[in-house]
Automatic annotation (TrEMBL):
<comment type="similarity">
    <text>Belongs to the activator 1 small subunits family. RfcL subfamily.</text>
</comment>
<feature type="region of interest" description="Disordered">
    <location>
        <begin position="433"/>
        <end position="472"/>
    </location>
</feature>
<dbReference type="InterPro" id="IPR023935">
    <property type="entry name" value="Rep_factor-C_lsu"/>
</dbReference>
<feature type="domain" description="AAA+ ATPase">
    <location>
        <begin position="43"/>
        <end position="158"/>
    </location>
</feature>
<feature type="binding site">
    <location>
        <begin position="51"/>
        <end position="58"/>
    </location>
    <ligand>
        <name>ATP</name>
    </ligand>
</feature>
<dbReference type="GO" id="GO:0016887">
    <property type="term" value="F:ATP hydrolysis activity"/>
</dbReference>
<dbReference type="GO" id="GO:0005524">
    <property type="term" value="F:ATP binding"/>
</dbReference>
<dbReference type="GO" id="GO:0003689">
    <property type="term" value="F:DNA clamp loader activity"/>
</dbReference>
<comment type="subunit">
    <text>Heteromultimer composed of small subunits (RfcS) and large subunits (RfcL).</text>
</comment>
<feature type="compositionally biased region" description="Acidic residues">
    <location>
        <begin position="435"/>
        <end position="469"/>
    </location>
</feature>
<dbReference type="GO" id="GO:0006260">
    <property type="term" value="P:DNA replication"/>
</dbReference>
<keyword id="KW-0067">ATP-binding</keyword>
<dbReference type="InterPro" id="IPR003959">
    <property type="entry name" value="ATPase_AAA_core"/>
</dbReference>
<dbReference type="Pfam" id="PF21960">
    <property type="entry name" value="RCF1-5-like_lid"/>
</dbReference>
<comment type="function">
    <text>Part of the RFC clamp loader complex which loads the PCNA sliding clamp onto DNA.</text>
</comment>
<keyword id="KW-0547">Nucleotide-binding</keyword>
<protein>
    <recommendedName>
        <fullName>Replication factor C large subunit</fullName>
    </recommendedName>
</protein>
Length: 500
């Protein structure tokens, strides 16, 4: 199933004027960059955008580049290669400038993660810079002193709940969707001023079905730490940072492995990098298996290192914000509304027809899935037995073509059963009538009728053709009609007698 583009990217403002409630900051950034463009570099050649997550710092840099025609060279402070890269671009920027190409703007994210050992180097590079260097940090005071001294600070405010709600409503309008007011408020409250988190929640709620919004939000709350931790693992190329990122996650390593497994293809795009990441993951899996078999749980540490550090350094990652998806196996809540409704109705039918409790029924559903995928004959019998409709069959088997085959078979079974049922009912009626009407000479014919019914039933268990069924039905009906006439005849006599 193709996933929809993350709304945080889709609705990232392209113009500075679209950035909400950071007017003062934007004004300072504009003035600073215009000084560069007027051939008059500002005294402080670097800028530090400081403020809480999801308040618009990265957005500012890209909107700025868009409006003023810069090419952004984005570097991450936690990447050890950053220093050499900055050096290269600081030099290259000058050359490119002379050639009249796009000016380069160096964007250094997570400036509060710069190692003290590298800070001096970067400070020197700022002195030599021929092009703007913009840094972003959540905690201004954690940016190394040497760098702070060379940079102008621009403060970003934490967005208010009102700002967040306004931004969410704008997105809903563009998507043509609505969400109950109380859900919007709930999302805004939880976001704590982080518009990125709020937009992600909104997207989950809207695509997951509004009725379950509370549940979805609760779920996200529980899993919050794993979403955050994995975003960090996938944002860094630094082995140590990747390992540290998952320390606070309350999850067994095998479950964590599933999460990482699910997200690798969204983080890496080059096949060789994806392969390398999966290679690290499979080594982690080997350690986990060994720990499980031998009880040597100290191996968990190696497994976790492999799946975090090993995966983080596997190659070149996609640019921009990484959205983390829960693994499919534990993704019930992120299924579509329709899928959930179908699951519920199938489970209810299993509970009713097979007299099971919900948990048991859920387990049975898994068996049914296996049966439906592999044995359409048996599946068809279940369809009739549980009285499933075509949509439910499609949901169980997960394949439209297979569902059609099973459905066709189930219709045949249904037809046969209907005929059998009619025959049986008819035979029952006849039997009853004969019990009511005292008879001696008709006994044979009752037996005759019963035999015919039994024959038909026996045959039905084998294979019988439509014509044979038709013939047998007619026979029985004929016998029935005969009895009817006799019965009527007898009543008439009685009636006549009474009349007399
Ligand atoms: N002030 C804002 N106005 C409009 N949209 C915003 C604003 N702040 C954040 N956003 C939205 O939230 C998303 C994340 O914002 P952004 O990447 O700019 O955050 P940030 O401040 O750089 O956070 P971090 O420190 O976590 O990197 C953006 O895609 C954008 O859609």
């Amino acid at each position: 199933m193709p996933r929809e583009a993350p709304w945080v990217e889709k609705y990232r403002p392209r113009k500075l004027s679209e950035i909400v409630n950071q007017e003062k900051a934007i004004e300072q950034v504009r003035a600073w960059v215009e000084a560069w463009l007027h051939g008059n570099p500002p005294k402080k050649k670097a800028l530090i955008l400081a403020g809480p997550p999801g308040s618009g710092k990265t957005t500012t840099v890209y909107a700025l580049a868009n409006e003023y025609g810069f090419e952004v060279i984005e570097l991450n402070a936690s990447d050890e290669r950053t220093y050499t890269m900055i050096e290269r671009y600081v030099q290259a920027a000058y050359t490119m400038d002379i050639l009249g190409k796009h000016r380069k703007l160096i964007f250094l994210d997570e400036a509060d993660n710069i190692e003290p050992s590298g800070a001096k180097e970067i400070a020197k590079l700022i002195d030599k810079a021929k092009n703007p260097i913009i840094m972003a940090a959540n905690h201004y005071w954690e940016v190394p002193r040497e760098i702070r001294d060379k940079a102008q600070i621009v403060e970003y405010k934490r967005l208010t709940q009102r700002d967040i709600i306004k931004a969410l409503i704008r997105i809903l309008k563009m998507e043509g969707k609505t969400v109950p007011k109380e859900i919007l408020y709930e999302i805004a409250k939880r976001s704590n001023g982080d518009l990125r988190a709020a937009i992600n929640d909104l997207q989950t709620v809207v695509t997951g079905g509004v009725e379950d919004a509370k549940e979805v939000l609760a779920y996200r709350d529980v899993e919050k730490s794993v979403f955050q931790a994995l975003a960090q693992v996938f944002a860094t190329d630094n082995a140590k940072k990747a390992k540290i990122a998952v320390l606070g996650v309350d999850m067994f390593p095998d479950e964590l492995l599933q999460w990482i497994d699910e997200n690798i293809p969204y983080v890496y795009y080059r096949p060789e990098d994806i392969a390398r990441a999966y290679e690290a993951l499979s080594r982690a899996d080997i350690y986990l298996g060994r720990a499980q078999r031998t009880g040597a749980y100290s191996l968990w540490k190696y497994a976790t290192d492999m799946m975090t550090a090993g995966v983080a350094v596997a190659g070149v990652k996609k640019k921009g914000f990484v959205k983390i998806y829960p693994p499919k196996t534990i993704k019930i809540l992120t299924e579509s509304k329709e899928e959930r409704t179908l699951r519920d109705s199938v489970v209810k039918k299993i509970m009713k027809e097979m007299h099971m409790a919900k948990l048991e029924a859920l387990e049975t559903l898994n068996y049914l899935k296996a049966i439906f995928e592999n044995n359409s004959e048996m599946a068809a019998h279940f369809v009739v037995y549980l009285d499933l409709d075509l949509k439910e069959v499609e949901f169980i088997v997960g394949d439209k073509e297979k569902a059609k085959t099973i459905w066709a078979k189930s219709m045949n079974i249904e037809k046969k059963l209907k005929k059998e049922g009619e025959l049986e009912a008819r035979a029952r009626e006849i039997r009853k009538e004969f019990e009511e009407v005292e008879t001696t000479e008709e006994g044979e014919e009752i037996e005759e009728a019963e035999e015919t019914t039994e024959e038909v039933q026996e045959e039905t268990e084998e294979e019988i053709s439509e014509e044979e069924l038709e013939k047998a039905t007619k026979e029985i009906e004929a016998v029935g009609r005969k009895k009817e006439e006799k019965k009527k005849g007898k009543q008439a006599t009685l009636f006549d007698f009474l009349k007399k």
